[in-house]
Fold this sequence. Notes:
The protein is of the alpha/beta class. Helices cover 39% and strands 15% of the residues.
Amino acid sequence: MAIVDSDAHVIESERTWEFMRDHEQDFRPFVVVPKSGEANLSGGFAGRRSIVSEYWVIEGRAVQKRSNFRSAEVAEEAAEVADIEQRLAHMDELGVDIHVLYPTVFLRPLTRRPEVEVALYRSYNRWMDDIHSKGDGRLRWAAMLPYMSREVAIEEMHWAKDHGACGFFMHSVEGDRRLSDTYFDPIYTEASEIGLPMCIHATSGNFSQFDLFQTDAGFSTFKLPVVGAFHDLLMKGTPSRFPDLRWAFVEVSAEWVPYALNDMMLRFKKAGRPWPAQDVLRENNMYVACQTADDLDWVLDTVGDDNIVIGSDYGHNDTSSELEALKVLKQSGKAPAVSVDKILDTNARTLYAL
């Protein structure tokens, strides 16, 4: 069986932006190194602890370049995939066959301008294609789509599918739009036809929400909005309108699933709507990435073992990060062996069409 890490990361580098076209060079992020912990850049790092670091400047905002980087256990060259052989060798040490790569800098909103979004996302996707092409099929990735420009987004979907992408990244909120907004219907239709999932990662794509919580409330900024997106999509019946489309909810653990489903059950019953009970995830092609700290017995008893995957959050250092999570799950006895095999292999390959 294969071992698939359903949530690994890349740390963006200067090379990420080398694929911008000539007319996009004014949008290219550049690096600043503050002399202290304060700066006057809008949305920057004023008030934070005085730690010298590098920052991207994007649209006048300072964004930490190696945000949340797990430097103690992951070499910088491996995290940035500057040394692909080193990354693959580390995967071998961890007993992992495939990394599904998610971004770092894009886990927050960066621009309100469609042309800037296109430039940033398009360059990132070509950087990821370059990485994938040298990774012996072991480095797959979730493509960034410029949702403010739907025609361009649909073009990118096809290009990305042809260049090793195995999913399409979404913030929990895209700008001022919830994911149940019918604005996204053409995207969902195209994803269904292409056969790749929409991947909602721990994020916030709304400036007001992000700025309100960013300094000390990662739970409210990154985790809860994903739970809300899951709840909203089901309440609005969006997955049922796209029965062939798969959905992933990544880096928010899985223990919230029983709570969210219980809340929806009460709302469905109150509205006189039939409730599908344990089959909710399966019937809606929804997959959730668990963590080894989850009460997996409870989760699996609630939703079964066909729609749970796991990721290590490779390269990051937060509450979801566990470099050897896949090995721990396999050896811990926290779930039946047949369920573990599904989580590590079958479910992930089905989700990402690997």
